[in-house]
Amino acid sequence: MLHLAQAWNLLAAIGGTPYYLRPNFPQGTKYYPIEAELKLEPFGQRALQRFILYERPRTAEREAAASGQTANGPGSVRYRSVGGLYELIQRGYDSMPQEQLFVRGEDVQVGAELVYLRDLIKVVDRDSARAAIQMITEQGEGATTDWVHSHHGIFLGVKDAYDREVQTSRRRREPYEPARPAVTNPAPRLRGDYGAGRVTLLADEYARQVSGLFDEGYALMLRMLQYVFSNPRADPRILDWFVRTAIGMMPMVIKPLGEALTTLPSGLDSGGTAGPSFGMTRHVPLASDASWHGSAWLSWWPWPARSPMHRRRRPLSGAPPTAWLGCFPGEPVALPSKELAKTPHARTTGGRSARHAGQPGHRGRYP
């Protein structure tokens, strides 16, 4: 998330807007110049090799270019790694006069104090832009720092541990299966998929429902973050609410749903389990003129009917804006019972959600 946020700050500094649309999985080796597949598959040797390729150091790319292994022609704008991409971005920032390039001020930048990312840099000039790009590349490929703590170094360490486990299992003549047998490139339905290749459609109805819920939650999380970076001068209470909700969704919604999907049957004759598709179902920004009181929701996620968490999210017209339950572990949610009782939902449902939300000191967890 840090690198996405930093890229958005880099865009905002030169007049751009936050953008997160990408192609759905899978994509072939020619979609991006890194010439590696974009696909979803269970953890294993192939997946590890692909991630190592994504994060390979820029030095490896230069060595390949020197040996004639790239298809770059004279004057072509190509890259073969993420580090190579950011080197081209850095060249772009260096190619224009600073006063013409950085057309927006610090007031459009999102800082670490809002999004709880201590390494996030506000980009206001060439020096801060260079520092931001260097931070992304160093944490990714780790070309000039301790590789052990970079993304590339971490993946290399995981691969070494994986190889040791494989060798140990062979000596014991035991199978080594560290991941659940999820199908490759699962999807709940055909969505157009922004040019994606062939997906594996889930056949089990319940798995499709949970997979669709995962995609909608994933998209909502990105839309809330996009709102924050698109409207840094909005009401601070809305910004804080969206940030904390989006960040809270990562461990409390996205991760457990993704893990749960790998335990559900795919319903296919070939067997295997379902898995998260990380599908981009929409790219529609949230309204930038949202008001504090108009954005109040008592949020019950639309869990499938067979799930114990099956209540649906219901708008609370006129409710206090902190009426968002189940967002943050251990965070008290202030829902004054007198104000909540005035809402149509509280008057008509009489359900457990309204009673619990109206209790002072309710800690915002699912009942």
What does this structure look like?
- The chain is an all-alpha fold.
- It contains 13 helices and four strands.
- The strands form two sheets. The protein has a two-stranded parallel ribbon with strand order 1-2.
- The protein is globular.
- The model is unreliable at 69-75 and 294-367 (pLDDT under 50).
Produce the secondary structure layout:
Layout: H1 2-13, H2 45-54, H3 58-66, H4 82-94, H5 98-101, H6 112-115, H7 126-140, H8 151-172, E1 186-187, E2 200-201, H9 205-230, H10 236-261, E3 297-298, E4 314-315, H11 337-341, H12 344-349, H13 352-357
Parallel strand pairs: 1-2
Antiparallel strand pairs: 3-4
List keywords for this structure.
43% helix; 367 residues; 2% strand; disordered C terminus; 3 domains; 13 helices
